[in-house]
Amino acid sequence: MHTQVAIIGAGPAGLALSHLLARQGIESVVLEHRDRAYVEGRVRAGVLEQGTVDLLHELGVGERMAREGLVHRGFHLQFAGERHRVDMHELTGGGAITVYGQQEVVKDLIAARLRQNGPIRFEVSDVALHGLDGERPAVRFRQGGEAHELTCDYIAGCDGFHGVSRSSIPAGALRTYQKIYPFAWLGILAHAAPASDELIYAYHERGFALQSMRSPTVSRLYVQCPLDDRIEDWSDDRIWSELHARLDLADGPPINDGPIFERGITAFRSFVVEPMQFGRLFLAGDAAHTVPPTGAKGMNLAIADVRVLGAALAARYHEGRDDLLQAYSATCLRRVWRAEHFSWSMTSMLHRFPDDDGFQHQLQLAHLRYTVSSRAAAASLAENYIGLAP
Ligand code: FAD
Ligand code: PHB
Question: Which residues contact 358 (CB under 8 A, 6 or more apart)?
Fold first, then answer.
């Protein structure tokens, strides 16, 4: 088997890249180790920047998102018993974000790709990358008990943080930057109307909480929890009582409870490798970098990477130019580090740190008060939240 670009991983990065390449007449094969139902059911991010929304429209997969996605022009910061609206739209001269679940994006990308007979191979195992520093790399894998070899011109490593691509690069060729945070998020989906039309990011003495949503009848809610908590430690009653304690205001309606139909704990990690390339292997999305979810940047960065990679591969195939491929890592890393800083800053402003003796708490309150009282500070937050232009 031969293809032009072998794509490892059918997450947002790998799937969007397969569409970008197809539109340029470049062949690809996507290799995914999970089955389709698993990939489509994996609940993760929910906030799409305008650049991500625009790209999905350009790829012709934006129709359901336009119908079901919720456009938000602001969000709330809550602390010291008060809720403050950050008017993103006004502060950024017209910016907004769209709330639409990552797994809905993934479903739309898969359905459209399969309609075009684009090859996505689910349930492959033992994926191994070979010849990365030569002219003709190859991916070996097993499917249905048979061994296969896919030769290609380039490999796109879009297989997430735990994938095989990054670890196929020889030790010493990459520099790794990492920060682990001393807490996690417990996230739920519940059949309950969101208490507010817009997201509420709450800093509370008991820890962070977030009211988000997926539709007018489904809430997505998160609470900060200790790093080593297990999902079994959290009964429904405990989850709702923490959410009420952290999100309800004395003088407003409480958040709405409802049956919980999905729950999970997400650890926090800021992680970057440099460069995002080795020979003919290009890393994109979580394979190259992760951010804590507080800034809602993870999936948006993954999509931004493959926009750059798709254009660089098109320049290579259609114009015989290598310069954009050579600049790929540096181009992406500028956006990545901006998002790393923003995600770290939002995380630091909004969470309780277990080893804090009170000093950090006071700094966080000062940061929050400044953000909601200075137009310049609020505009900076809003500009980062809606995302940099492509
Ligand atoms: P992924 O979505 O991870 O896709 C990688 C794909 O590669 C997967 O389908 C995987 O099955 C496949 N794969 C892995 N290894 C192999 C292999 N060896 N061979 C073949 N295929 C392989 N971001 C936010 O902004 N907000 C959130 O609330 C949020 N919540 C998150 C919760 C969790 C549990 C996680 C893990 C991430 C969360 N993120 C969140 C981050 C966001 O979801 C990611 O940034 C985004 O999924 C990155 O997309 P990707 O395509 O790079 O990687
Ligand atoms: C979500 O809706 O899942 C969500 C929203 C905002 C975040 C993270 C996750 O910062």
Answer: none
How far is residue 180 CA from its own chain's centroid?
17
Low-confidence ranges of the chain (pLDDT < 50): none
Mean pLDDT of the residues in the chain: 97
- Number of separate helices (H) and strands (E) present in the chain: 11, 20
If one residue of 43, 44, 47 were mutated to test the ligand 2 pocket, choosing by the most ligand atoms within 8 A of its CB, it would be 47
Question: Which tokens is 233 given?
Answer: 């430690």
For 79, 104, 295, 335, the CA distances from 213, given in Å and listed in that order, are 20, 13, 16, 27
Q: How many CA atoms lie within 13 A of 329 on its CB side?
A: 18
For tokens 């739209």, name the residue.
Answer: 89
CA-47 nearest atom, ligand 1: 25
Among residues 242, 328, 322, 316, the alpha carbon closest in space to that of 284 is found at: 328
CB 266 within 8 A of CB 290: no
Which residues have CB under 8 Å from 190's CB, separation 6+?
218, 219, 221, 257, 258, 259, 260, 261
